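step=encode ok
step=design start
structure_in=
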């Protein structure tokens, strides 16, 4: 098939569900629909489509952005970061309701109240059965609580951006790397986008899961209809938090974070495996968990903040000056090392090679970025094939049963690993004597 529209991206499983294709379409011919495996993919209404091909031009799923990848491949990643800080929101309500330190919400509240922007585009988790991730456009700072905590599922955040920009002069965007890549590519069709989006707050992203991960977690918790989910609820178990499932009658059931992590590889979006930009190199400010940083509050959590641009620095400085956040400087190199970026680069190159080995088309610009040889290639191929398999089950129930079996194997492996880890510790101590 020739690359004529967004169907090419979907057919070859390169879609990131960012929503950029829909934002590029002035005819509103593109909408998003959930697949049986929980992917959120665009569909075209050919009754209104004029075959302009703009949907393909702005798709970050098939277009690598050289500047982004250069920050990982051509220099030390630390060179792209002006400052690294750790801290929390000073408002206790914002802090304790946040996933980590509440810094993103505090920043958004500050820029809305100071009229730096007219609105904020971010992600939320819906309250209906079954719950799903959703895009939120927030103009009232009092509504920001709806956007707190992570949503590890597809959200086509940019889908209605063109309409939003008609009603608001300036919008801050909070999103994953794919959303920031989509914004960059949308400059081709929305020339004044840079002026209308004066602030981009990026979230550190390891990967996301298909929407059916919500249904699986709900099934583990209760037979009742489920109206809401929090992937990491620190209000009950402390930071970093366990999944909490809210049934339609208001009952809250807590699950184990270890099980959520164990099932991660089963539900990972296949295109996430081909993404290098964990640290959101296209954002002005980047926020996430402070892995590898000493002295962090491990009970209630804190936020790692990376400053990437002058306008990002100004927003941070103003917020600190206003007293809405409290931050302290930390080592940039430690912040980067704590995110295992070197390993991420190695894994990413191996996934590109494995993807090609599966006879799947690489994103444009990736041909010369893949690794060499076949070291560990089977593991990478297996993970990719798992992502491709999700839409192939005869029913959703069959897929959820397969996820149950996956978890049992992971649990068994975890239990079997305890004696081995004990022996390794003993051997290490003996060597140090």
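sequence_out=
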């Amino acid at each position: 098939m020739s690359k004529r529209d967004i169907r090419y991206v979907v057919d070859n499983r390169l879609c990131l569900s960012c929503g950029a294709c829909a934002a590029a379409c002035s005819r509103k011919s593109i909408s998003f629909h959930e697949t049986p495996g929980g992917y959120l993919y665009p569909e075209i209404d050919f009754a209104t489509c004029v075959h302009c091909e703009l949907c393909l031009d702005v798709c970050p799923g098939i277009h690598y952005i050289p500047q982004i990848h250069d920050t990982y491949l051509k220099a030390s990643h630390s060179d792209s970061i002006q400052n690294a800080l750790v801290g929390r929101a000073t408002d206790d309500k914002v802090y304790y309701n946040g996933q980590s330190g509440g810094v993103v919400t505090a920043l958004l509240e500050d820029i809305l109240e100071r009229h730096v922007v007219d609105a904020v585009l971010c992600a939320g988790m819906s309250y209906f059965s079954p719950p799903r991730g959703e895009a939120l456009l927030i103009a009232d700072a009092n509504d920001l609580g709806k956007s707190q905590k992570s949503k590890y599922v597809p959200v086509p955040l940019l889908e209605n951006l063109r309409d939003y920009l008609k009603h608001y002069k300036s919008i801050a965007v909070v999103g994953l790397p794919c959303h920031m890549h989509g914004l960059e590519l949308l400059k081709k069709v929305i020339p004044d986008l840079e002026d209308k989006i004066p602030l981009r707050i990026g979230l550190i992203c390891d990967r996301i899961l298909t929407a059916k991960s919500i249904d699986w977690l709900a099934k583990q918790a209760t037979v009742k209809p489920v109206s809401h989910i929090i992937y990491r609820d620190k209000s009950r178990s402390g930071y970093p938090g366990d999944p909490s499932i809210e049934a339609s009658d208001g009952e809250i059931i807590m699950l184990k974070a270890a099980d959520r992590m164990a099932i991660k590889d089963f539900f990972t979006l296949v295109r996430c495996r081909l993404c290098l930009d964990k640290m959101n190199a296209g954002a002005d400010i980047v926020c996430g968990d402070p892995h590898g940083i000493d002295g962090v509050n491990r009970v209630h959590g804190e936020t790692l903040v990376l400053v990437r641009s002058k306008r990002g620095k100004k927003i941070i400085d103003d917020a600190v000056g206003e007293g809405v956040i409290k931050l302290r400087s930390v080592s940039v190199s430690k912040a980067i090392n704590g995110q295992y970026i070197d390993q991420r680069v190695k894994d990413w190159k191996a996934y590109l090679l494995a993807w090609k080995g599966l006879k799947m088309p690489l994103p444009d610009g990736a041909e010369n970025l893949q690794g060499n040889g076949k070291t560990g290639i089977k593991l990478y191929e297996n993970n990719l094939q798992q992502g491709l398999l999700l839409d192939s089950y005869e029913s959703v129930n069959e897929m959820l049963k397969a996820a149950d079996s996956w978890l049992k194997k992971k649990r068994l492996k975890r239990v079997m690993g305890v004696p081995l880890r004990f022996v390794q510790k003993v051997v290490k101590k003996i060597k140090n004597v």
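step=design ok
step=annotate ok -> The first strand starts at residue 30 and ends at 34.
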